[in-house]
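Hi team,

Filling in the usual template for the complex we talked about on Friday. All components are listed, including any nucleic acid strands or ligand strings, so the model treats them as one assembly.

SUBMITTER: L.P.
PURPOSE: interface mapping
COMPONENTS: two
RESIDUES: 221
SEQUENCES:
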Amino acid sequence: KQEVTQIPAALSVPEGENLVLNCSFTDSAIYNLQWFRQDPGKGLTSLLLIQSSQREQTSGRLNASLDKSSGRSTLYIAASQPGDSATYLCAVRWNDMRFGAGTRLTVKP
Amino acid sequence: NAGVTQTPKFRVLKTGQSMTLLCAQDMNHEYMYWYRQDPGMGLRLIHYSVGEGTTAKGEVPDGYNVSRLKKQNFLLGLESAAPSQTSVYFCASWEGGAGELFFGEGSRLTVL
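RESULT (copied from the run log):
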């Protein structure tokens, strides 16, 4: 069964800290992997999209890596800010797209 | 630059009532999806469409029907609403290939 898991479910860090969010998936035959941000009561905003042939993608303070062989992706956030507080979702595309349950991040001032 | 638009954004139904959620995208995407999001369970795929006139079942299709009569629109119907269908519903579209998945803002449905 194709499943996506995100651990931890919640994370709280002080402002300025660098942090890593984890995503694991069960079947390495993926097309791509996408990281999203979701603010309370809002829709999902795409952060980074990594194709199966890529190892990482970067956007500003965000860096996402992909290791298909181990079924893992990480989202690295540098110099975290209170505005980064949100839920971060990992989604993996096989024939359709499956989502992890998300990691709720709180960055404390 | 509307992207993916969902209507309505909020709705309260009584058990047994019917309703339709509308999703419209202006990006000429072939693929469209309906997900539901429940606390602690992430997003689960209800139904999807790979092009105009096509629909297919996802993980949790029971109690829902869909139609894709026009390429830009994907409708999600509840024929007889149940409290278990209380959720936030998200529509998404995808151009295919290496493209991103784009989401609407969500529709919050409460069934009493």
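MY TAKE: Chain A touches chain B at residues 4, 32, 34, 36, 41-46, 49, 51, 89, 91, 93, 96-102 (CB under 8 Å). The mean pLDDT of chain A is 95.

Thanks, L.
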